[in-house]
Design goal:
With 296 residues, the chain is an alpha/beta fold. Helices cover 32% and strands 17% of the residues. The chain contains 10 helices and 10 strands.
Length: 296
């Protein structure tokens, strides 16, 4: 690896020597949870669930992150390539409808090597579930190894991206990455049972007081990528629990994050998505609960 420049942060740290960059992650795989996940998008879960592997660490560090116990690093079990390979095939044997890597960006090079050796033996799709803040150069190394990309598309405004994720260039980086995802895997394609075999699912979490930003994101994707070239997963599950926990004992800086979405906010973004021709998944606001977050 030498100096790590896997993601757009380009920290340039030597993770093999034990140093960590923005992702808070060492060179070795750090895995926080392995599970059959029943709460992913229906086209991914089948009868038994998605075979989900949560990596610890993250290159974004969003201040409201629901997985912050693991995204800040330090909460995970170190695994060798052989151990991770064993876990992947164990999930497949247990009936996983897919193998889903969650927050894998900072292990792109390691996963590329591993998948190059085992992909031909897998009978289920491989899903790349990321924050969408990834470099095109890194993504190109994964071509042919990933069947389904499932990125977030978090922000349109540079100011908002800087405020919440310290990544002012998020929108332009995420759009370039989205073009690359679609180039690699093409339009959504399903089998006869409705299971997604390849394609791109774009997740967007609507934040309180940011419905205008959300609508601009949808308009951008529709104009630059095409609404029919992706599946939209419009998420209304934002809950202040995680932000409030992190802010406990501190002055609350972002008051809008201290509440859930209103029906008006969600419905207005949903209406825009439908007008733009998006198809996919739309959450009930009852999903705004921490009970749906896995116990790490």
């Amino acid at each position: 690896m030498a100096l790590c420049n896997i993601c757009p942060r380009k920290c340039g740290v030597d993770r093999e020597s034990g140093r960590v960059g923005v992702c808070h992650s060492p060179y070795d795989f750090s895995v926080s949870k392995i599970m059959l996940h029943e709460w992913e998008e229906p086209c991914l879960v089948g009868n038994s669930g998605a075979g989900t592997i949560f990596f610890s660490g993250c290159n974004l560090g969003c201040i409201y992150c629901q997985n912050r116990k693991i995204s800040r690093g330090g909460c995970g079990e170190t695994m060798t390539d052989a151990e991770l390979e064993g876990a992947i095939f164990s999930l497949e044997e247990r009936g996983a409808a897919c193998i889903e890597f969650v927050t894998p960006t900072h292990y792109s090079d390691r996963l590329c090597d591993l998948l190059s050796k085992i992909k031909h033996r897998l009978s289920v799709p491989v899903v790349w579930n990321s924050g969408g803040y990834e470099s095109v150069e890194t993504l190109r190394s994964l071509e042919g190894l990933i069947d389904i990309y499932m990125p977030d598309f978090k922000y349109f405004s540079p100011e908002t991206a800087k405020k919440y994720s310290f990544a002012e260039d998020y929108c332009s980086v995420a759009l370039d990455a989205l073009r690359e995802y679609v180039r690699q895997v093409g339009k959504p394609h399903y089998d006869g049972s409705g299971k997604l075999l390849h394609g791109v699912i774009v997740r967007h979490l609507i934040l309180p007081s940011h419905r205008a930003d959300s609508i601009k994101i949808l308009e951008l994707i529709a104009s630059e990528i095409g609404a029919k070239n992706v599946i939209l997963s419009l998420m209304g599950q934002y809950t202040p629990d995680f932000y409030l926990e992190e802010s406990e004992g501190k002055e609350t800086v972002y008051k809008n994050l201290c509440r859930r979405l209103t029906s008006f906010e969600y419905d207005s973004v949903l209406s825009a998505a439908q007008d733009l021709g998006f198809e996919g998944y739309f959450q009930s606001l009852s999903s705004a609960s921490k009970k749906y977050t896995p116990d790490f």
